[in-house]
Design goal:
Oligomer: single chain
Number of helices: 8
CATH architecture: Alpha-Beta Complex
Distance between the termini: 29 Å
Largest sheet: 7 strands, mixed
Shape: globular
Helix content: 25-40%
Structural class: alpha/beta
Number of domains: 1
Strand order of the largest sheet: 5-4-1-6-10-7-11
CATH class: Alpha Beta
CATH superfamily: Spore Coat Polysaccharide Biosynthesis Protein SpsA, Chain A
Strand content: 15-25%
Radius of gyration: 18 Å
């Protein structure tokens, strides 16, 4: 195990809280015999760039389960308003360049996604924050407010994130090749920018759309967005567990 004062290039942190307004204790929900947090941790453990992987939690029940399958766990304050705050508490004493925020409710996260966002920062000193998007292939996702959409510029930097379908098709538009991208909530930051972001006040667009990443754009910073061919199923409510199980069975993943 690395010493706390050893210099690291990339670490991954999985912020996990027990309380959830729509699905309390969801990070421990059973998925084919394993808690959801274990699926996330096992997939993240396959990444090539992560030198350290930590589960940052606020509840002893999560700690006990995570330690039972071998994860490194750090207990954090219960009062944190967001996963970003929880991550900041964990990485504050660490000498690290890039921090990857891995959502605890994304059991289908692909290791390549994590390596991609971390690499985007390691390979480009001008990038301080990176995330991923997936082209939408299911029409019912386009107008689903739970599926966040993103549009990017020609250099792959985010222009805007929204719960609405963007871009919007004008009534007299003749555009035939209309497509949409789903934003997947995986982020990598430089450690310096993580604390810059943490200290920003919640912004107007963030409050309107209920999307924290808009705070970054409103404050004039850029988010690099990399397209992935892999999809995920985020777990927001109990019925999402069944969708994940169906996907895993169809793809023959025990």
């Amino acid at each position: 195990m690395r010493k706390i004062n050893e210099s690291l290039k990339v670490i991954g942190v999985i912020p996990a809280r027990y309380g959830s307004s729509r699905f309390e204790g969801k990070v421990l929900a059973d998925i084919l015999g394993k808690p959801m947090i274990q699926w996330v941790w096992q997939r993240a453990s396959q990444c090539k760039l992560l030198e350290k992987l930590i589960i940052a939690c606020d509840d002893e029940r999560i700690r006990e389960v995570a330690e039972s399958f071998g994860a490194e766990v750090v207990m954090t304050a219960k009062a944190h308003a967001s996963g970003t705050d929880r991550i900041a508490e964990v990485v504050n004493p660490l000498d690290v360049k890039v921090v990857v925020n891995i959502q605890a409710d994304e059991p289908l996260i692909h290791p390549t996604m994590i390596d991609t966002v971390a690499g985007a920062i390691l390979n480009n000193p001008d990038v301080v924050c990176a995330t991923v998007m997936k082209r939408i292939t299911e029409p019912d996702q386009i107008n689903d407010p739970n599926v966040v959409k993103v549009i990017v510029d020609i250099n792959g930097f985010a222009l805007y994130f929204s719960r609405l379908a963007i871009p919007a098709l004008a009534y007299n538009s003749e555009e035939k090749n209309l497509f949409y991208f789903k934003h997947i909530g995986l982020y990598a930051y430089t450690k310096d920018f993580l604390f810059t972001y943490k200290n920003m006040k919640p912004s107007y667009l963030e409050r309107v759309e209920k999307l924290e990443q808009l705070r970054i754009l409103e404050n004039g910073y850029r988010i690099k967005v990399i397209e992935t061919k892999y999809d995920t199923i985020g777990v927001d409510k109990p019925e999402d567990i069944e969708k994940v199980i169906k996907y895993l069975k169809q793809n023959q993943q025990p």
